[in-house]
Every structure is written in C-alpha cells, then in structure tokens.
Amino acid sequence: MSLPDYIGSSLDGPISAVRRQTIAIAVAAASAVGAVFFVLSAALLALEPLVGDIPARLLIAAAFAIIAGCAVLLPRFLHTPSVVERARSEAESLTPDQKLAMVIEAVMMGFALSSRGKSSQKPD
C-alpha cells in the first residue's frame, strides 16, 4: 500500500462522516432553536398569570442557561475516536515490511518535493 493511498484511505471515512454529521447537526440545531423559541414563548405566556411578569422571565432565562450548559457539556460526553487514534491502530496492524516500505516511500517523496522546490527557484 503506497503512502498516498494509505493517507487517502485513512481520511476518506472521517471526512465524509464529519460532513454528514455537520449537515445533520446544522438541521437539528435550526429545528431545536425554533422549538425552544416556541416552547419558551408558550411557557412565558403560561407563567405570567401564575407568578407575575418578572419571575416568569427569570424562569425562562434560567431555562436558557440550562440549555446553554447542556450544549457546552454534551460534546464532551459524546467523544469518538479521533483520526490520529484510528490511523495509529491501522498502522499497528501493518506488517514490519509494509511499515518499512511506507517510511522509505515517505523519505523518497520528501526528497522529491524538496529537490523540486530548489530547481524551481531562479538565481538572482
């Protein structure tokens, strides 16, 4: 397996997963904002006759604070393995010959890139 193929195969899955999750989160966030707005608006209308204008608004503000706290803490509880962790586990599954071949290929690619950069520079 060549180094570009290895890198490409390591990153294709996570990139497409991040793209799908981003779209889903954006749609869910927009829907949640609308739902929260209407629920809290109805709650304000229901609470005003019971507790008064100012306490009703304070209760709604407390609800917003709780929602904000949940939004900050939720991603910390939903941790998934990172790209680095996944790539490290894939690298550990390679045979020693494959690892050596990948290192040699990386050195050759680095040399090719560095020598190409020097030849494109024009002397003054």
Structure summary:
With 124 residues, this protein is mainly α. The protein is 88% helix and 0% strand.
Provide keyphrases for this structure.
124 residues; mainly alpha; 88% helix; rod-shaped
Please explain how this structure is put together.
This protein has one domain. 88% of the residues lie in helices and 0% in strands. The protein has 4 helices and no strands. Helix 1 (3-51) packs antiparallel against helix 2. It is rod-shaped, with a radius of gyration of 27 Å. The two termini are 42 Å apart.
Major β-sheet profile:
none
> N- to C-terminal separation?
42 Å
Class inferred from helices and paired strands: mainly alpha
H-E string = HHHH
- Tally of discrete structural domains: 1
Query: From the alpha-carbon coordinates, what is the Rg to the nearest angstrom?
Result: 27 Å
Globular, elongated, flat, extended or rod-shaped: what is the shape?
Answer: rod-shaped
Low-pLDDT runs of 5+ residues are none
Query: Which percent range describes the beta-strand content?
Result: under 5%
Mean pLDDT level: 83
- Count of extended strands: 0
Q: How many helices?
A: 4
Range of helix content: over 70%
Q: What is the secondary structure topology, with strand pairs?
A:
Layout lengths: L2 H49 L1 H25 L5 H10 L3 H25 L4
Helix pairs in contact: 1-2
